[in-house]
Amino acid sequence: FKLPSDSFKYLGWCDIEEHDVRGNQLHCPRVREGPSEEELFFRKEEHTLKKRKRVTDTEKWEKRLQENWENCAELNLSFQDLGDLYQVENFKRILRRLIRVEKLWLVDNSLTDLSAIRLPRCRELNANKNHFTSFKQLPKIPQIQHLSLAENNITTLSGISDLRHTPLESLTLKRNPCEFQERYRQLVFSNLPNLKILDGIPKLPEDYSPPDVRLFYRICTIL
């Protein structure tokens, strides 16, 4: 039988006997949405608007109930192709509803700033291949354990100490400009003392910061 949502009316249910996807997992749904009719009108782009069926308030509410983002535990929202500001804002609206998500993938979405987003239960976040330039632009992730930010544009380690009070165990910063900073690994581990793995490599003896030489000038040695 047909699916209840109008946008999926030409699709049917498929009985897949063996799979490991649970009801609270969604993998790569397309959440981007085009501008509304009003938005296109004010932009004077109404000629791009296709003829649509008038949707009642009841139908809108039923469709919203089907978007049960709040209960997602694992969610892959990668490769969304967010080319319009309206799509970016709609995408952030979705992220604000992820109050129970524990594993989240946001790969290659051209994201620049999610500092207004809070993901209270997120333990694993993959935000590779975006346009973050600072740790200050990351969402609030107080329970994060595994964070991957490879192939962004993070230039300095400023703001990394904000993750100090999280249970962060592994961090990936490969192919970011900050990777070429002098004493890069030592600085990261000194700011994140609970960190165990950086860029896929466990903490090594040489990653421990040497004692501050300035301390020796305040020490009086009596022979």
From TrEMBL:
Membrane-spanning ranges: none
Matches recorded under PROSITE patterns: LRR
InterPro entries linked to this entry: Leu-rich_rpt (IPR001611), LRR_dom_sf (IPR032675)
Leader sequence segment: none
Keywords: Leucine-rich repeat, Repeat
Protein name as catalogued: TILB protein
